[in-house]
């Protein structure tokens, strides 16, 4: 018996959510898609990067937040971490303790409340701050989202942040003076993912690139979150664009988005990057609706089932016999009618057995959209801008934000595209497209010019076929 669609539980949940103002919405027993809310636009990628890294690394290593205890009669610094180090060093007088404390403050913090990157293990000790009510919980949510989306129990990644190895005596002193980190144990609830990854291919690409960058030790310590941020933002773009296709999308490759460079001038409306992000902006309000629509379609008898894409659902349906497909189609038709009844809406004439599954997905989406607050949908969608604008978006006057890369990020992405062996210029741009990055003719010229200036282009002739991009590292 086929069981692709299962609407019993979501029906029970929504039946209890009828109000005078309409029907409240619920995603049922399906894992979350994003940590976004409609009540608060995220700013964690603008203001709390180090804290996000700290929590993400602890999740990766299954550690609790560190506890700094000070049993001495005198403190040398406002930073508990520095007091721990100083207390573990023996000097003849207190003046030397104070000199060491001043040096460590400058070395580790440099008049900044955030810990400077020094060793990957130290990220475990960056704690979450509660500057405003709800801040800490929000940071925990985003850290967990990134972990479930990209890291997800990868032992190679975990080993990067659990190793204390160093050939630097000062770093060894600092690490050895830190309080031990307590494991969260084998709590099953903690280990189970809270967020769904609807595009496993993206995670595979991320791990490939992340582990490659990890071999560049000094660079990696300072810049590894840039690749994390890029793939997190790219995932949201991919999710929205692919969802807009209602099952006609491909899960075997990433869609390419056209980027410009932040130093380019005279960006006109004819540029493909302008059009690409306009598509995102014009449909950002649909993100909230897609999540609910896909949640309805992804319900199962299991607790907290994974969110499925329209395409993945269609592929599962195509594996069924004709009679089983007809049975599932009838279930979906019945659910659209039942949901419409709960929401007090008329059932569209297009909802019948002659409709394709893609058409029925659109019909359910439309019914959900009618009963949702436009303001809620708009606010939820604006999180896309907030996620990308600190790094991968640039305001371009009347065009608003468009996709943009800074020089450092372009070189980082070029490094993972080329890896260890030189590749042809054509292959180079194909590798970037694998990662969801495309350039029009104008931005391609800028890319080539920058690579030439940095001496990363090897020319055997003036033709594109005879030009190669050398390894960046």
From TrEMBL:
This is DNA phosphorothioation-dependent restriction protein DptG. InterPro entries: Dnd_assoc_1 (IPR017645). It comes from Halobacillus litoralis. The gene is dptG.
């Amino acid at each position: 018996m086929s069981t692709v669609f299962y609407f019993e539980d979501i029906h029970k949940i929504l039946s209890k959510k009828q109000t005078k103002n309409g029907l409240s919405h619920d995603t049922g027993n399906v894992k979350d898609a994003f940590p976004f809310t409609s009540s608060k636009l995220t700013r964690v990628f603008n203001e709390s990067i180090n804290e996000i890294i700290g929590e993400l690394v602890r999740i990766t290593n299954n550690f609790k937040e560190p506890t700094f205890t000070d049993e001495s009669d005198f403190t040398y610094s406002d930073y508990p971490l520095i007091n721990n180090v100083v207390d573990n060093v023996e000097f003849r007088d207190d003046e030397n303790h104070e000199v060491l404390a001043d040096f460590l403050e400058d070395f580790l913090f440099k008049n900044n409340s955030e810990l400077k990157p020094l060793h990957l293990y130290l990220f475990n000790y960056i704690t979450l701050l509660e500057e405003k009510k709800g801040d800490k919980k929000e940071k925990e949510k985003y850290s967990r989202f990134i972990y479930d989306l990209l890291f997800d129990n990868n032992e190679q990644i975990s080993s990067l942040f659990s190793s204390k190895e160093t050939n630097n005596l000062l770093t060894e002193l600092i690490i050895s003076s830190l309080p031990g980190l307590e494991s969260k144990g084998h709590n099953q609830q903690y280990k189970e993912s809270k967020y769904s990854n609807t595009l496993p291919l993206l995670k595979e690409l991320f791990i490939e690139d992340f582990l490659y960058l990890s071999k560049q030790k000094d660079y990696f310590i300072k810049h590894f979150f840039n690749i994390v941020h890029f793939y997190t933002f790219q995932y949201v773009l991919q999710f929205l664009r692919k969802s807009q296709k209602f099952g006609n999308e491909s899960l075997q490759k990433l869609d390419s988005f056209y980027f410009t460079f932040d130093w380019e001038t005279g960006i006109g409306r004819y540029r493909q990057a302008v059009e690409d992000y306009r598509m995102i902006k014009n449909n950002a309000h649909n993100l909230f609706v897609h999540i609910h629509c896909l949640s309805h379609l992804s319900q199962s008898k299991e607790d907290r089932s994974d969110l499925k894409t329209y395409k993945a659902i269609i592929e599962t349906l195509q594996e069924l016999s004709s009679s089983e497909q007809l049975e599932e189609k009838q279930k979906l038709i019945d659910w659209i009618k039942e949901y419409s009844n709960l929401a007090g809406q008329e059932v569209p004439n297009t909802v019948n057995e002659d409709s394709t599954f893609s058409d029925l997905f659109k019909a359910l989406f439309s019914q959900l959209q009618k009963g949702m607050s436009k303001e809620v949908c708009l606010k939820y969608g604006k999180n896309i801008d907030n996620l990308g604008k600190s790094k991968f978006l640039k305001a371009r006057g009347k065009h608003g934000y468009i996709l943009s890369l800074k020089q450092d990020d372009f070189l980082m992405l070029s490094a993972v595209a080329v890896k260890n062996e030189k590749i042809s210029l054509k292959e180079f741009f194909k590798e970037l497209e694998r990662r969801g990055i495309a350039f029009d003719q104008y931005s391609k010229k800028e890319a080539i010019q920058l690579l030439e200036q940095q001496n990363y282009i090897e020319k055997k002739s003036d033709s594109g076929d005879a030009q190669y991009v050398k390894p960046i590292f």
